[in-house]
Amino acid sequence: MEELLPADVFLENVPGIENYHRFKSFLTLLRRLGYHVNIQPLELSDYAVPQRRRRVVVLAGHGFDIRLPKKAKVGKTVRSVIGDLPLPENSRNRLHRETTQHSPLMLKRIRAVPKDGGSRSDWSEDLELNCHSTFEGFKDVYGRMAWDKRSPTITGGCINASKGRFVHPEQDRAITLFE
């Protein structure tokens, strides 16, 4: 930072980072170097990011203030972002065309999740995983996205139905990397 002195700095990270000693040291350094630091916990979907995502955002200007933009008047929904995409097999985009190849049992589980926002709690007992029979947490795994809601936070595991609410709202598959 001291050598480059960029005009502005943008950083976003997980809530709670504000309590981390290295983060505090970084903010102290920015201020010592003459940056005006604006730090805010935000729900990024309020700013037209098409997913629910809570983050801590740092905006710092070297000698000037950087303010957050106004919140978006209308949030983006799953439908508004991916609703008009072609079926993956009809796409010319490789990141959309390549879908996860699910096992027969995984496909059976996905098909048992109701369209448009359903979850694994709708499964019959024969489809339930042993680890879910006694554990109530992480209910989003194997869940479908809902067309008219915001997307869940997209993670590196988004092409795997077992990693979160990453099943397409209507099609019996996990979302693609492009989606």
Task: Give a description of the structure.
The chain has 179 residues and is of the alpha+beta class. The protein has two domains: 8-62, no CATH class; 78-163, no CATH class. The chain is built from five helices and three strands; from the N terminus they run βαββαααα. The chain has helices at residues 21-32, 78-82, 94-97, 104-111, 130-133; strands spanning 8-13, 35-43, 54-62. The chain is elongated and about 60 Å long. Strands 1-3-2 form a three-stranded antiparallel beta sheet, covered by helices on one side.
Poorly predicted segments: none
Count of individual helical segments: 5
Shape: elongated
Total domain units:
2
Neighbour order of strands in the largest sheet = 1-3-2
| Rg (C-alpha, Å) | 21 Å
Summarize the helix and strand pattern as letters: EHEEHHHH
Provide the helix percentage.
Answer: 10-25%
| N-end to C-end Cα span | 36 Å
**Major sheet:** 3 strands, antiparallel
Structural class: alpha+beta
Rounded average pLDDT:
92
Count of distinct strands? 3
Strand fraction band?
Answer: 5-15%
Give me some keywords for this one.
single chain; 179 residues; three-stranded antiparallel β-sheet; 5 helices; elongated
Précis, in short:
The protein is of the alpha+beta class and 179 residues long. It is built from five helices and three strands; from the N terminus they run βαββαααα. It is elongated, with a radius of gyration of 21 Å.
What secondary-structure arrangement, pairings included, does this model have?
Blueprint: E1 8-13, H1 21-32, E2 35-43, E3 54-62, H2 78-82, H3 94-97, H4 104-111, H5 130-133
Antiparallel strand pairs: 1-3, 2-3
